[in-house]
Amino acid sequence: MSVLIVGMSHKSAPIELLERASLDTDAAVKLSQRALETSSVTEAAVISTCNRVEIYVEAERFHGAVEEVSRLLAEHAELDRNQLVQHVYVHYDDSAVAHLFAVAAGLDSMILGESQILGQVREALHSAQAEATVGPVLNALFQQALRIGKRGHAETGIDRLAPSTVTAGLAAAGAVVESPTTRFLVAGAGTMASLAVRTLIERGIEPDRVAVANRTVQRALELVAAFGVRAIDWDDVDAELAATDVVISCTGAAGVVFDRQRIATASAGRPLTLVDLALPRDVDPSAALIDGVNVIDLVVLGERSENAELAADVEQVRDIVEDEVRTFLAVKSASRITPTVVALRGMATEVVDAEVTRILTRMPALRPDEVEQVRRSLQRVADKLIHAPTVRVQQLVEGPAGLTYADALADLFALDQAAVEAVTQIGGDDA
Description:
Blueprint: E1 2-9, H1 15-21, H2 25-36, E2 41-49, E3 52-59, H3 62-77, H4 81-85, E4 89-92, H5 94-104, H6 116-130, H7 136-155, H8 165-173, E5 184-187, H9 191-202, E6 210-213, H10 217-227, E7 230-232, H11 237-242, E8 246-249, H12 260-267, E9 272-276, E10 293-296, H13 298-306, H14 312-362, H15 368-398, H16 405-412, H17 417-430
Parallel strand pairs: 5-6, 5-8, 6-7, 8-9, 9-10
Antiparallel strand pairs: 1-3, 1-4, 2-3
């Protein structure tokens, strides 16, 4: 069995398609459970963020799992298979390990190096654990990915590039964020909204200049208690919007929250900046055509990221990820081989025992010490015969991939290549 990933991200699909495929926590759980109901999947977890949707499974059969998981993703996004296949990617086994480690380290994010993805990977794991959709394989893989992400941020300065999508959005908003008179409205009260409020307060913005609006008032009040900001009823959003300079929207709604007319009424010709971090989008993109209105959404942030120069810190994190991938795969390979080696040694012991029994049957007059000498001699012969194969199999695991079965056998038993070629030639002549 092996790890399989079927997913799409900002690199493979347009934002409109990612909007259709995005999942909240409940939907991600349901998708994981549906994957487990298929015949080829034994474990499942889903990572869904503002710029990616990925289904991770432990698959018994590669082709069967790809077909079934792709079908589930297509059904969720309401796409036919032909539409989906143009925008999804598939990672399997070693490639899947490398991909998740890069994701957790922020190397595959729209904003290179962003740290928010770590929390999203952790949330995906905890959710899958709570619903018992993951087992030992995905548990170990996700735990290691989280450790690598933490290591990358601890050992490098990659956080300076963009600790989160929120910081990137505020940076894109420009000087208005730094003005001592700027008023902020955070729409939403989930994880992203909480991060937005925290980021504003940590930047030294007074709590009374920050308002939080959410359809569920209790969630907004929780942010009030944590940061001292203001909470407003959702019914009062339009009045607050008219007095706001910067809106950070991340509601998790299924469709547009701030349409063009609503924004035009609120701005009334004055400058208004909207940072839309939601997927699906909260802000109608056409609102950017209104005079004085600046819309910063995931498409804009993606374009800014593509033009950014790769820092030395990013290269250092890449090195960390590559090193961790090699180590993880080596341990994984060794764990697969250990039972085989143990079984081989067990078989050798059984052969020795059987031969000693046969000798005793033929030579019943042997003394116990003589029987023991015979046993030890046979065991030494058996140990010498299997020593080279067990050493070479470990070397094969740690060496380059791509050996054929014939190459593996020849290398495993240290066969003389000339002899192998001679036997091959004889077989060809006989044919």
